[in-house]
């Protein structure tokens, strides 16, 4: 199974150092890892650095991957939608990128399966430019998945989705990671999503890694006070699930 380790990762834009000393050895395939932290902490920059879209110090160690340079895929936060392509064409194009134009039956079956799982079959013949923000986000997830990444970096993939679809998408990603062995890193602002769907969590603040490990060990009142500047606690709900309750901003 694929695994990613980060060794002393840094990144800069021009003279501004954005990230430094990011290190972890526990990003395993088969589950979801949340990457959390305040606005401008450096989460997207970390993803771009892991995906090789930004140069910088440190090393991304990838083990167990079979698809070479295409193993890691970054799904950005803002996905443009102005191309004059239908949803289906755009997903087919994504599936065929980097390979020949011959389309095999199993590829079409794979696309249908993803469209169904994300409940967007009815959008197949709509043009990308006429989709809503949430619809575009679902299509972007489909485009990322049909390329069968072994490591998928999803930058706030549920930010435009309604409550039902947020839960559907995260539960689907959890199942997909478990069955395919893919490692999925998800930048999230909703910490309840991290608590519910992500086995591990990494906390980034001011370009530094502040904590990392099993989600329940990482999302603590002390971390929330320190990093997010809120007084908050994690309690068990009546169904036994951990729920984050924010009481106030920290003094
Ligand atoms: N292309 C760029 N050029 C210069 N500075 C940039 C660029 N992209 C991001 N930055 C800066 O890098 C810092 C980290 O940004 P980044 O997008 O990685 O944060 P983030 O944690 O993903 O934030 P958010 O939660 O708000 O999406 C910010 O101060 C941002 O202004």
Automatic annotation (TrEMBL):
<keyword id="KW-0862">Zinc</keyword>
<dbReference type="GO" id="GO:0005524">
    <property type="term" value="F:ATP binding"/>
</dbReference>
<keyword id="KW-0813">Transport</keyword>
<dbReference type="InterPro" id="IPR027417">
    <property type="entry name" value="P-loop_NTPase"/>
</dbReference>
<dbReference type="InterPro" id="IPR017871">
    <property type="entry name" value="ABC_transporter-like_CS"/>
</dbReference>
<dbReference type="GO" id="GO:0016887">
    <property type="term" value="F:ATP hydrolysis activity"/>
</dbReference>
<keyword id="KW-0067">ATP-binding</keyword>
<keyword id="KW-0864">Zinc transport</keyword>
<protein>
    <submittedName>
        <fullName>Iron complex transport system ATP-binding protein</fullName>
    </submittedName>
</protein>
<dbReference type="InterPro" id="IPR003439">
    <property type="entry name" value="ABC_transporter-like_ATP-bd"/>
</dbReference>
<comment type="similarity">
    <text>Belongs to the ABC transporter superfamily.</text>
</comment>
<keyword id="KW-0547">Nucleotide-binding</keyword>
<dbReference type="Pfam" id="PF00005">
    <property type="entry name" value="ABC_tran"/>
</dbReference>
<dbReference type="GO" id="GO:0006829">
    <property type="term" value="P:zinc ion transport"/>
</dbReference>
<feature type="domain" description="ABC transporter">
    <location>
        <begin position="4"/>
        <end position="231"/>
    </location>
</feature>
<keyword id="KW-0406">Ion transport</keyword>
<dbReference type="InterPro" id="IPR003593">
    <property type="entry name" value="AAA+_ATPase"/>
</dbReference>
<dbReference type="InterPro" id="IPR050153">
    <property type="entry name" value="Metal_Ion_Import_ABC"/>
</dbReference>
